[in-house]
Amino acid sequence: MASRVVTRMGDGSLVELMPAEIRAELEAGVEAAVTRFKVEPLAGDELDHLADIFTSPARFVSVAVGDEVVLSQDGTGQPQQGGSVQALYETEQLICQDTVELSNLDYSYPAVKTIAPYEQQTMKEAQERLTIPVHYGAQPDLGRYSRPDGPVGNWSELLPQMRIDEARAAQEEAVELAVADMVHVAEALWEAGADGIDFDTAGAAGDADLLAALRAVEHLRRRHPDMGIMVGMASEVVLGTHGRLEHGGVRLAGLKPEGQLRVVQAAGATIFGPAVTVNTGKTVAWNTARAITLCKPCMAAAEIPVHMNVGMGVGGVPMSAFAPVDAVSRVSRACVDVLRLDGL
């Protein structure tokens, strides 16, 4: 008789399920993606493989020798003591990441612009101490440009008042300001020795937020042909807070992972990071199956490396402050084995 398997919910809590129940969770996760996003379902052998991973009694699972992928990072953990460079060094030496990312506690390009010289000095010190590539990253954070903190109108206030044209105009003005700030910071850190630049959580404030990131990428690619540029997404669907913005003739509102990939690589990025938000009320198996089904179309269209976001609350990893290793290892192996990703 099959024994119950200890697994996780999307909030990290433990739950015990029978193998047949885990298989049902995987199938339901696939169906959720197919029904909602009109993508193709996973094949039977892919579901079989996922079932093997999630019903394993092992505490930790891993890919086969030779199937390892690059482990990149965004927002490498902020230091408790010893400073940012020490935190990066410990990540390199203890966690064995393939890359790390220098970032400020206020993970925002408009905020970093005010302290760019300080960040340049920190990057120089990091490059002198670490062996692996050190990137610099933050998020576009388009909302930072709206009132009362920023100079343009607040579309979150204007939209409920049905002042649609004013809300759109405010976002378009914010895009121009954000592009200038992102380019300024990226070029400053590139000059200081950064091995690459990361525009993280792109699209968090909607289609205008993504447009700002895409335009910054285009600008940097023209001026710096050798610059490595990673774009990590905020979620599986781009919110249409503006609704009419396009990039290269493609409407940004509503883009799913495959569409996000296409505009990101057309802009000139060198790494794409899809993100699929976790449902904390569903199991890790359900969430992972849904995320993989949503992201599978990316792989056929990808001309640049795809590093799926598998961190706190995205890609199948539970939304918890300290992600449990049993869940993280299963999610990671599932994504690599089924999607044949370039990295995580």
Can you characterise this structure?
There is one protein chain. With 344 residues, this protein is an alpha/beta fold. The protein has one domain (5-339): TIM Barrel (Alpha-Beta Barrel). Helix content is 45%, strand content 10%. It is built from eleven helices and nine strands. It has helices at 19-37, 44-54, 83-95, 109-112, 116-129, 155-158, 164-191, 207-223, 257-267, 284-301, 325-339, and strands at 5-8, 14-17, 100-102, 134-138, 196-202, 229-233, 246-247, 250-251, 271-273. It has a five-stranded parallel β-sheet with strand order 3-4-5-6-9. Strands 1-2 form a two-stranded antiparallel sheet. The chain starts with a strand and ends in a 5-residue tail after the last helix.
Brief characterization of the structure:
The chain has 344 residues and is α/β, with parallel strands linked by helices. It is built from eleven helices and nine strands.
